[in-house]
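ARCHIVE CARD
SHELF: 3
SLOT: left
DATA:
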Amino acid sequence: MHRIKIRHLETLMVFMKTGSVTEAAEILGTTQPNASKSLKQLEGAIGISLFQRNGGRLQPTPEAEILFAHAARLMEELAFIETLSGDLARLRSGFVQVATLATFGVALLPLVAEAFNTRHPDVAVQIDVVDSDKIHSFVSRGNYDLGLVHHPSQEVDLTARTLRTGSMVCILPAAHPLARRPGIRAADLAGMPLITYPRTLPFGAAIAKTLADEGVQVRNPLSANHSHVVRKLVERGRGLALVDEYSVWDAAAAPGIAVRPFEPRIPVSIGMIVSQRRPLSLAAQAFLTALQDALATPPL
């Protein structure tokens, strides 16, 4: 028996629905002799007779009825695959999973997700805040399309790339006297209530070292290990803070706080990691493009 091809199943479907060589030829867009030839090729391919002539009509055999039921389901699935492939190519379907550090989820990624959803409303996006020591392993195992970290490291099975190197910025209540200045220097913070991070965290250690190097002493009545909490405390007027610029990427839409450049500069990077075993889907590539577009327009 020869292998059955899609065109054989299409021929079967047409003859089953019409029961007529003439009508089948019209639907298949061919002549009656060619339609009859196609039917004989189908029967030759499967090795059994599928139709009997009865009063000028084609009467399907029981075997044809059985094959038709399965062929109908297969053709429906094929039609679904054709539609789905078109939707995937046009980003009318898809799923993007992103693992990120918490600081990128405060302001930057919500803006990116909003822009992406506006362009591609039918593509689902899942953004998960994940511990920094787990992002690399999760992406390597294929649990996520891409991971966002501060310092992407080139590891086995991973491709890493820095997307932007920004800076720590000073955030303060919009009504604070220092908000009138175009920029904030370390000396301006002397004696001020500075909401900061624990020194056991990289941000906290970098801020403490910078202020110590500048000979500046501040008051630290409040601290938190999450940029979102630090930002909320500033919004409530509890003090000033130095945070990474990514956590205030939406500063233009945050009337309660002012964001100012800080000197001396404390660099903060955002990088991505992707699996070398799993190419990025079209949807994930589009999300990465939306992220890069957002990073091209910093808050300051």
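SLOT: right
DATA:
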Amino acid sequence: MAENNDTKQQQQQILEEFREMVLAEKNLTPRVEDAFLLKFLRIWNFDKNKSLVLKQNYYKLRCDYSHLYKNFSLSSPQMQALRQNNMATILPQPDQHGRLISVVRLGNWDTTLSNFDDLFVSLHMTLEVIIEDNLQAQLNGIVSIIDFEGISFQHVKQFGPANINRTITLIERSMPIWFHQFHFVNDNAMFKIIYTLLLPFLTKSMRERIFLHGRNLESLYKHVNRDNLPQELGGLQPPLDNSALVEKLYEYEEYLQKLNSFGYKQGI
């Protein structure tokens, strides 16, 4: 929608109608402030019906896995373990299209210190902070680079069908942010097992947004400029450093805990 007075009036009307739709949901204690509702409307270009489904999915996911969020703490040993070795971070500058770049190095995940539940909650909380803190990221979306260097059978064992399904539900159907591309690099035999497990859960849209580069990083650079990437990926930026992301998460820890007060009282 073009940003003129008529459009702004239309958007305001849609926002009010959307708020009424959300408030009409049974057994739901929702957030209804303008800024939060607009996140769900923007992602669907102010289609309030599609936005409502996304909003329902957002709260249903939290309801289905409420036991994982109840005692969430960034200071827990499991969360601290996930922050070691720069396993996951957001790069300080976006790509050439203004999209946020996330880098996950699965081989750096110590599965003896944290399990898939911990990884899932960490991903979810990071996305919550991104959509709350970074409007440009919500508008432009995310490009995710997943580095499989060093993964072992211990990692493969974490990727059961239920874990894969809930992760795809989170990133594809439950959060008001768009993952434009997924780039898989530095794969090995263990990756092939994970990818085989992953395939049945992928929608046609997701399959079209996944790029398998193997160890050919030149192939990656066709999608994400090398200028924007860290040294670990052959880029021209400094080495990976997740300290800024960790600091941002701690800044929002109280906010993340307050999110537990919203949602469905019972399943829908």
